[in-house]
Give the backbone structure.
Amino acid sequence: MSPDFTKQTIETIAKRSAFRCSNPDCRVLTVGPNSTDTTATIIGEAAHIHGARPKSKRYVTTMNDEARAEITNAIWLCRNCHAKIDRDENYFTAELLFRWLEIHERYIASELGSVSDKTRFELEERELQSFSNYPAIIRRIVIDKPRGWEWRLTAELMRHLNGPELQRLKDLREGLYTRPLLHLHDDNIFRWIDEKFAEISNSITPIEPLLASLTEAWGMPGKSGNLNDIHRLCRYIRDYMSRIIDIEESLYFVNPPEEFENLIALIRSAFGENLAKFQEIPNTLDEVLSMLDKNHATKTKDPLVIRKTISFSLPDGWLDSINAEIQKSSEKFILRCQAETNEDFFGHN
């Protein structure tokens, strides 16, 4: 798919801007009369916020062409302002341009819009309140709701929400930060291990219904998804990941009796690896979005179904290794305790 805007997208963004430049310091009218009775002179242009092609301003390598061509990535500007923003991307950042767009839409609705326009804008503003602290691109998806917005919103929410958690996991494993050590003693090591295995077991349970509910929130083919459900479930997934990393963290910052050091290292080596699989979901949704121009998005009869299985698995033989290490650690621990008991007994005699 081409990263260029379609004729329909250009017309829509121009009309939404009331044919005025969206730079709040400009707002020049970009349409006027022409010497030919049947045409008009237009000095406005639909500009890409994130560049359409490599080496263009504000180009993002991880963005696909479908997203670059969406109305969520478009802003209506006069030719002068369009040239200006493409001369200095450090000053005219994507976040600034998204902000221009929001300010201009508020201006159009309040100053030039009809009662219906103002009411619609107020409803949109209310809907956006839950997304006020999110990146501008997420707010644009909520407002514009382009084709496949459910998948695009999910992908962007998961990148934004899960990114810090995945970074925390990476930093943890690279030893970039520390926490106070939990010192485990002989009298509580077995209870701690039992509790930790219970935590691990319970933490795996919610992920299947979470992902199933997210799929349901996207809606049936040809039907709009549920914005609030998508948002809520993405936050639950972020919370789930945070909890998993908390458990992984507890396995790093612990000081057990030396007999159990290998056991804890073995548990630690496999548990958090599965979290990286969440990074695959946004990329898979990008692939789905790339198929929208093939008329699959609204096909209700024999629709194309894309299935993505996320398998949470442990290394081959991991459970056998765990059981063997538990037995070995326990035997060493018991022998040491017996030796210490004998030493104390004979020492007192």
Q: What stands out?
A: The radius of gyration is 28 Å.
